[in-house]
């Protein structure tokens, strides 16, 4: 497995079916010539460089923790007057599914314009 496992989570809507995108980041040695997927539902996508606002937490990646931490981060960003892409966010998991404690997971919102903070503020 690669780390992090990245999930693109759409903003909830009762009018549309949610489509989640799970990404496995390729190690640098495979990026110039990635292996060809053997399943039509799997595809190679290049992600552009981006700045993100991040909230780290120690919970597993699941709906409850995602709802909790994405709301916490978006509320903090709104309070700070930060500009960020709405309509989706990312959740990133850095651990295998086995450990239940001392995990490292994150919620990301993509920065629009210049960040209002830097470092670990």
UniProtKB/TrEMBL annotation:
Pfam families named in the record: SOUL
Family matches, as InterPro entries: Reg_factor_effector_dom_sf (IPR011256), SOUL_heme-bd (IPR006917)
Coiled-coil region(s): none
SUPFAM superfamilies membership: Probable bacterial effector-binding domain
Family, as annotated: Belongs to the HEBP family.
Annotated protein name in UniProt: Heme-binding protein 2
Species assigned in the record: Ameca splendens
């Amino acid at each position: 497995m690669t780390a992090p496992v990245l999930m693109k989570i759409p903003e909830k809507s009762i009018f549309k079916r949610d489509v989640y995108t799970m990404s496995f980041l390729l190690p640098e040695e495979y990026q110039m010539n990635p292996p060809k997927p053997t399943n039509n539902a799997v595809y190679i996508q290049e992600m552009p460089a981006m700045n993100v606002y991040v909230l780290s937490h120690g919970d597993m990646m699941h709906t409850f923790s995602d709802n909790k931490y994405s709301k916490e981060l978006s509320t903090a960003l709104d309070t700070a007057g930060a500009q960020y892409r709405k309509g989706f966010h990312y959740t990133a998991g850095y651990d295998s599914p086995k450990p239940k404690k001392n995990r490292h997971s994150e919620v990301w919102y993509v920065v629009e314009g210049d960040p209002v903070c830097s470092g670990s503020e």
